[in-house]
Specification:
By secondary structure, the protein is mainly α. Helix content is 49%, strand content 0%.
């Protein structure tokens, strides 16, 4: 089973692990974009009963805004140097 055929809940964990191992900014942006797509799929499915554990999340400043909105969490304060 490839990463793209994994259920979105599992894909979040795989992507978070890849993100932690990536040092290149371009790779991190690509992974964060894929993570955002998985979050969107989960929200649209209306079958996302539990917030992912911390190890399955990206650092707050890389998490998609939709994640914070869905879970009614306060989004992080933007850091200098990080573009949306």
């Amino acid at each position: 089973m490839t990463r793209t055929t994994l259920p979105p809940e599992k894909r979040l964990g795989v992507l978070a692990m890849e993100f932690r191992g990536a040092r290149d900014e371009t790779a991190r942006r690509r992974i964060a974009d894929s993570y955002s797509l998985a979050v969107e799929q989960l929200i649209k499915s209306r079958k996302w009963p539990e917030i992912p554990p911390l190890e399955d999340q990206l650092p707050d400043e890389w998490m998609p805004t939709a994640f914070f909105e869905y879970w009614s969490l306060r989004p992080p304060t933007p850091r200098a140097g990080r573009k949306g």
